[in-house]
Amino acid sequence: MEKLDIVLDPERSALLIIDMQNDFVTPGGHHHRQGRPCAPLQLIIPNIQLLLGSLPEEVKIIYVVTVREPDGSDSHWRFHRILPERVRATGEARGQDCNCLRGTWGA
Question: Nearest-CA neighbor of 99 among 17, 16, 32?
Answer without folding.
Answer: 32
